[in-house]
Amino acid sequence: MTGDSAMGSWNLTIHVWVRKFERNLEDHGLKTALSKTFSYLLHFAYAKNFYRLYRINLLEPTEPSSPLEGVEFRWLTLNDETAINEIEENSEWLKGTVRGRLRAGAICLAGFEDGRLAGFNLISFGEVYMPLVRISRRFRGDEAWSEQIATVKNYRKKGLASQLRYRAFEELRRRGIRIFYGGALADNLPSLKLARRVGFHEFVEIHYLRVFQWKRWKYVRIKN
To answer: Residue 101 sits in which domain range?
Structure first.
């Protein structure tokens, strides 16, 4: 790696770290932001995550989508450069990857108000990677995986995330998808509440532990 490329990689890491702290500060307050930052600084040596997987059978009826005042929904293309940049700024772990995901067959539904990103749902097919628990899985042709669903802070608690889900369900059914999967950390209560509200059911919790290079996974079934 050259000096310039190493410096560029370091600058990107710093940018992601600062952006994470700012978002945690906005969303959760100083105490949680500092706690999450401390955990991030130690992640090279230690990581412990409880990750819940959920799924929905799209052969069963779900609530239909409905208009949301002032919000335009559309499926993104590679030409939506501004929206893609906004998505990567909103969800730092996607930085520099959204275009590649779309080229590989992923789809992304986004909501806009006055031309600015309000929220999005990125969905993948086939081989996927779950970074929080370091697991890869290949989904069947009639299955899909929700890589990320997020709303900009100013648009939360307005029904936007639910509408992203309902519209995604409709498109996935049209594509012949039967089972739609997603996941969230067990302590991410807003994300889990949203999933339950639109019809997902949690079915397993993955306990991931890493100490330096040693790793362990444990799967705990969830009874609904």
So the answer is: 47-221
